[in-house]
Amino acid sequence: MTALSILVAAALGLLVAAAGIGVLRWRRARSIGAMLAVVVVAAVAATLAGVVAITVDMVIEGRARDVVLAVVGVGALVGLGVAYVVARRVVRESRRLVEAVRSAPFIAPQGLPSELQTIANTLEEAYAREQALEGARRELVAWVSHDLRTPLAGMRAMAEALEDGVVTDRRYVSRIRHEVERLSVMVDDLFELSRIHAGALRLSRSRIGLADLVADTLAGVEAVAAAKGVRLAADAAPAPVEADAGALGRALANLVVNAIRHTPSDGTVTLTSGVLDGSAYLAVSDACGGIPAADLARVFDVAFRGEAARTPSLDGGAGLGLAIAQGIVEAHDGMIDVVNSGPGCRFEIRLPLAPA
To answer: Are strands 268-276 and 231-236 parallel, antiparallel or unpaired?
Structure first.
């Protein structure tokens, strides 16, 4: 074969390839089967163009030319047949995936080609996450609506009594102010949680010591513990971390307030900090009597309180404190966990140590 025939075959192949790409772009919204058919036709046409160039250059005529063209024709038919079978299977499995997506609940069909199987498994995981988030959202709306309705009803009754002159006790005014503060805290918690879930939590990190954070937290919750009759204890060893002191302090305070709320009078809540296994840790231990094993995995769920009745105590919130603490810790590239330990449970935060 001369160089001219090679150039002619290459030129014809490029023209066929360009035409095939143009058709694929023009019909890009068509099915995968149609696209495979275009690919096979382009490949056969390019091969045929090369054969034509060879026959012209070698002046093949008669029986030899017929044999060459017959071989090319058989190859084309085989290629088209294989493409048809493959295209039918791809289309059939794609339709199976579409039908599964349209059904509820979505369950990934099995036996798909590997790429489609990966897509199906990913969709199933995404569907499960979406269902979990939707369930948590509905649960949160129901519980927060109840928590908002209760103080609002009390405030309305007290306001009407004051307005009608039925009572003139200043304690009603004090009680209304207390309920307003509770509602304000709940709204702030909802706003903070929405920022965490939206990924809009902005951290201003600096080098801080966990022992100092423990001391500040104890000072902030001392009045709450005294009102409940709960003792506070600390065993804080230095542990430097790169963190937002305000956000991390709020997470720790949420854990401590939760521990105080569930610890009986004369019980003790202990805070510890230090370095363990190459990471910094903060731990809050209480005397709540432990958490049922079935509830341990749900402790950090939004609005979870672990109570049969969802009515909060007077000092209770909307059940968002632990969820907020988890979001803040994870935003610091840390982990938070809870285990039953001793007379109660132990919440532990793990954070990366600050570089030396």
So the answer is: parallel
Q: Is omega for the bond preceding 355 within 30 degrees of 0, making it cis?
A: no
Q: Tens digit of pLDDT for each residue in 108-166?
A: 888 777 777 888 888 888 888 888 777 767 776 776 776 777 778 888 888 888 887 77
Under DSSP, the state recorded for 230 is -
Residue 243 is inside which H or E element, if any? strand 240-243
Q: How are beta strands 279-285 and 240-243 bridged, if at all?
A: unpaired
3-state secondary structure of 273: strand
Helix axes 114-163, 170-197, angle to 10 degrees: 170
Q: Please name the residues in contact with 100: beta carbons below 8 A apart, sequence gap of 6 or more.
A: 106, 107, 108, 109, 120
Give 76-103 pLDDT, tens digit per residue. Answer: 677 677 777 777 777 788 788 888 888 7
Parallel, antiparallel or unpaired: strands 240-243 and 231-236: unpaired
62 is written with which tokens? 């008669």
Helices (H), the chain: 3-26, 32-58, 62-102, 114-163, 170-197, 210-228, 245-262, 293-296, 321-331
Q: Determine the Cα–Cα distance for residues 37 and 35; give it in Å rounded to an integer.
A: 5
Query: Taking each helix axis from N to C terminus, what angle separates 245-262 and 210-228, rounded to the nearest 10 degrees?
Result: 30
**CA terminus-to-terminus distance, the chain:** 71
What is the sign, positive or negative, of the torsion defined by CA atoms of 304, 300, 240, 211? Answer: positive
Collapsed DSSP state (helix, strand, coil) of residue 289: coil
Residue by residue, DSSP assigns 46-64 as HHHHHHHHHHHHHT--HHH
| Tokens (6 digits) for 152 | 């609002």
Determine contact, residues 309/332, Cβ cutoff 8 Å. Answer: no
Q: Tell me how far apart the alpha carbons of residues 53 and 158 are, in angstroms, rounded to a whole number.
A: 99
For the whole prediction, is pTM greater than 0.85? no
CB of 341 within 8 A of CB of 269? no
Helix axes 32-58, 62-102, angle to 10 degrees: 170
